[in-house]
Amino acid sequence: MPESYVPKEAITHGDGGTAALAIGEAESLERPPGAGPPSAPPTGKPRGLWSDAWHDLRRNPVFVISGLVIIFLAIIAIWPQLIATGNPYRADLAKAQAGAEPGHPFGFDTQGRDVYTRVVYGARASITVGTCATAGAALLGSLLGALAGFYGGWGDNLLSRTADIFFGIPVILGGLVFLSVITSSTVWPVVGFIVLLGWPQVARIARGSVVTAKQNDYVQAARALGAGNRRMLLRHIAPNAIAPVIVVATIALGTYIALEATLSYLGAGLKPPTVSWGIDISAASTYIRNAPHMLLWPAGALSITVLAFIMLGDAVRDALDPKLR
Amino acid sequence: MTQNDHQPRTDEAAPPTAGRPGLLDVRDLRVEFRTRDGIAQAVNGVDLAVTAGQTLAVLGESGSGKSVTAQAVMGILDSPPGFVTGGEILFQGRDLLKLGKEERRKVRGAKMAMIFQDALSSLNPVLSVGAQLGEMYTVHEGLSRKAARGKAVELMQRVGIPAAEARVSDYPHQFSGGMRQRIMIAMALALEPDLIIADEPTTALDVTVQAQVMDLLAELQREFTMGLILITHDLGVVADVADTIAVMYAGRIVETSPVHQLYKAPAHPYTRGLLDSIPRVDLKGQQLYAIKGLPPNLTAIPPGCPFNPRCPLARDICRTDLPPLYEVAPGRASACHFWKETLDGAR
């Protein structure tokens, strides 16, 4: 935008004020409530950071595709019978490790169960563990990290040392000890354990980016113009510090789904009556030469899920950065 | 105006009421930074006074304590490591240092506001300028977002941003440097504060834009009869807009004077050095004068006059006795033992 010289008369007098008022009125007359056009003109109603981001996201194919994949996964996680009419537990040992055949497009596993049905039913456990653990770790971690980074002092030290202690816990050993004493066959102990181990990583990233954002001049400027702590943190620091947290969270989501698989393989994660990609991948890994389809289908489903979440995170991060617009 | 550090005040009787005189009265302000390398004495007994409609320029090089003084007055000093260790900041009769955190916050923005050096980094990159301008009204006056936006457009027009209503949703990086600084000024002016502190408002701008921004600032100041503290190291900027000048060195005021008298005949060797180091057309081709040496390390300010190691007039007394602010003329003071010689033009 070129610098243009503005005559002083335009600045000093009250005309500017009345002009602005007139424009404001015209705008409200033009746009009665609920009748706004779908694509808002630049003079439309005020948009915040999030609505601007949403405006961008809707036009981003990466976001649309990954969003659709995630919605699809969420639907089959809730209602697997919509696309899989079989029973994931029904075993026909005569068909053990057999390949695809009509009605059973993915073939059978070692115990003669339909792989397709199990992949569809397995989405529920993996998605639940992945999203809940990520949400828990991200919320807890970013909240604690942001507070520690913003206020500093002894709270910051306490948090950093606590995080160090959690970092010191070996994941597998901790999982074996912690989860073997719990007999529940639901996904929640696994989710809880992953949140417990996962939050320090998020907290550390969140703390770091809040400390960086806090030093920005605009935070100082907001303070000089009378913003309180809460407003500074929520409106000026958080949006500028959230991108690394989103990136870490999306990467962690894939890791957490894989961690659930690892723990399940060791017998400490989900217990066999539950259907999970992790359990099936572990079971199939021994037979990769004889019957690779048993491994490839659940592993493929896992990969697509993780990819969709990472793409989503990428798109959201870009949308939250107005400089990329 | 500025008082002698070492002698009892004579005008103490004047009651600190909110009136035209005494909008801001800083007395014996002391600020230190507690760092790992020791305690840095950034501000050592500064007295400043600004009345409504008056412009005070605080002049000094980097590290002279001018920005720290401003931050202490605004109450935005990073603490730790910075601490106000003494003095009072009387603003409209109230000592700001005695106010609670929340009361102090309410003063910021509404009663006194600040303009920063670099508008690009002083505006939040993820919020549209309209949102940031409007925030002044939603925070302090509880306006709705829509009403605040209308006010934001009004403000943008007032500071001379063309097509304000179309650009109100734009983000800071979409504006040029001069336009961004206008937006910063608009934000500071939003609630018509009584005092504005501008910390090097034109340093990041190119020369032609500098003049426009300074004109705008001076004009708005007259219109609202605000007090303005202009912090700068640019003597050229000061001459046109300031009424009085306070020159700072090593956290102290070394000279304070009405602007034209100071330019005509400085009463402190440091001020003289500053004036002599301005490039002048009539001295083209000659070596430019520079003050020798470096400003003192604030963790170890030399005894006596802090300027003595760099001063061409320094004598024994300068190395032992800290000069008080001598009254040179009514409204003029200089912290130099040899102010008379300096005033008479000795080097």
TrEMBL record, chain A:
Residues 34-44 have a biased composition (Pro residues). GO terms for biological process: transmembrane transport. Keywords: Cell membrane, Membrane, Transmembrane, Transmembrane helix, Transport. InterPro entries: BP-dependent_transpt_permease (IPR050366), MetI-like (IPR000515), MetI-like_sf (IPR035906), OppC_N (IPR025966). One of its GO terms (cellular component) is plasma membrane. Pfam families: BPD_transp_1, OppC_N. Residues 28-47 are annotated as: Disordered. Residues 123-313 form the ABC transmembrane type-1 domain. The chain crosses the membrane at residues 62-80, 127-151, 171-199, 237-259, 295-316. It is a multi-pass membrane protein. It is found in: Cell membrane. Belongs to the binding-protein-dependent transport system permease family. PANTHER family: ABC TRANSPORTER PERMEASE PROTEIN, OLIGOPEPTIDE TRANSPORT SYSTEM PERMEASE PROTEIN APPC. This is ABC transporter permease. It comes from Streptomyces piniterrae.
From TrEMBL, chain B:
Keywords: ATP-binding, Cell membrane, Membrane, Nucleotide-binding, Transport. GO terms for biological process: peptide transport. It holds the Pfam family oligo_HPY. Residues 1-22 are annotated as: Disordered. Its main location: membrane. Signal peptide: none annotated. One of its GO terms (molecular function) is ATP hydrolysis activity. It is found in: Cell membrane. Residues 26-275 form the ABC transporter domain. SMART domains: AAA. GO terms for cellular component: plasma membrane. CDD domains: ABC_NikE_OppD_transporters. It is a peripheral membrane protein. Residues 1-12 have a biased composition (Basic and acidic residues). PANTHER family: DIPEPTIDE TRANSPORT ATP-BINDING PROTEIN DPPD, OLIGOPEPTIDE TRANSPORT ATP-BINDING PROTEIN APPD. Belongs to the ABC transporter superfamily. NCBIfam families: oligo_HPY. This is ABC transporter ATP-binding protein. It comes from Streptomyces piniterrae.
